[in-house]
């Protein structure tokens, strides 16, 4: 029997081209005027190499298991995460989340991303008062398109300056981003040993290089599995081997560690469980 999910808004929006090497995308979420159960008001996220800022335009939320609360009008910074995590909304919400490549946000702010692993805090406490002003403008905007335009108009000249005026990179898959990060870390600065390169990667992106490669490989594998599932010919053993895993069990163990579910379970839950909406729009 086909599961009918509630008619909530969950949408991924791509950034403008000059910001494609800085912003991975925008997640729009609205449950306004949609009756949901308590379970459907959960939001499940995977471990991630990305940083984010979420604006609570309407409603509130909390990080399950921590007691941390985001109230209406707050802007919440989230660092890269080493494990899957869940948030809960007690009532209807409307949120806008901007997803940053961690090394880009490091270039913009100077933050040591290793210190931001698994953190959530008020955005202005982490990023400074300059970001408080842009948050106020985002909250005052009349609709999501205007909010995204405000963010991009503010960020584009700052990102141009942070990357030294070089031509912007195009959007790239996660695996290619990780490889470019590793090459840049090895070629930067006076110390070019493997240990120094690893320190740079962690300062720029939070995670060690090995974890970044695992995260990219799981994302690549789940995208391939979803496409094959939609085509009606999914073979997880073939997906695993093409992605560089030793076998299907290796893929399943890694996916479970980084998402909380095996690939087959995750595909089922994305189709049947409203709380997996972030996976549905991303993977």
Automatic annotation (TrEMBL):
Matches recorded under InterPro entries: Homeodomain-like_sf, HTH_AraC
Keywords linked to the UniProt accession: Transcription, Transcription regulation
Segments forming domain HTH araC/xylS-type: 179-269
Domain of life per record: Bacteria
PROSITE patterns according to UniProt: HTH_ARAC_FAMILY_2 (PS01124)
Molecular-function GO terms, alphabetical: DNA-binding transcription factor activity; sequence-specific DNA binding
Pfam families, sorted: HTH_18 (PF12833)
Name by which UniProt lists this protein: Helix-turn-helix domain-containing protein
Organism: Pseudoduganella dura
Lineage: Bacteria, Pseudomonadati, Pseudomonadota, Betaproteobacteria, Burkholderiales
């Amino acid at each position: 029997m086909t599961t009918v999910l509630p008619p909530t808004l969950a949408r991924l929006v791509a950034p403008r081209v000059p910001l494609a090497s800085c912003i991975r995308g925008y997640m729009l979420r609205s449950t306004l005027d949609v009756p949901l159960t308590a379970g459907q008001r959960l939001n499940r996220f995977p471990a991630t190499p990305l940083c984010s800022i979420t604006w609570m335009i309407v409603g509130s939320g909390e990080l399950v298991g921590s007691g941390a609360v985001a109230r209406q009008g707050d802007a919440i910074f989230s660092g890269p995460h080493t494990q899957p995590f869940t948030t809960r909304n007690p009532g209807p919400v409307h949120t806008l989340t901007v997803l940053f490549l961690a090394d880009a946000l490091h270039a913009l702010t100077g933050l040591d991303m290793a210190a931001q692993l698994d953190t959530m805090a008020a955005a202005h406490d982490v990023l400074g008062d300059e970001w408080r002003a842009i948050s106020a403008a985002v909250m005052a905007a009349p609709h999501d398109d205007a909010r995204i335009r405000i963010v991009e108009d503010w960020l584009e000249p700052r990102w141009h300056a942070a990357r030294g005026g070089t031509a912007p990179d195009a959007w790239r898959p996660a695996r290619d981003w990780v490889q470019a990060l590793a090459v840049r870390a090895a070629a930067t600065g006076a110390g070019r040993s493997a240990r120094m390169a690893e320190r740079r990667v962690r300062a720029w992106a939070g995670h060690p290089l090995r974890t970044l490669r695992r995260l990219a490989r799981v994302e690549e594998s789940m995208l391939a599995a979803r496409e094959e599932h939609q085509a009606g010919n999914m073979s997880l053993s073939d997906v695993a081997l093409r992605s560089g895993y030793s076998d299907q069990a290796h893929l399943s163990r890694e996916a479970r560690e980084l998402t909380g579910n095996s690939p087959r379970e995750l595909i089922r839950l994305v189709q049947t469980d409203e709380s997996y909406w972030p996976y549905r729009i991303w993977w």
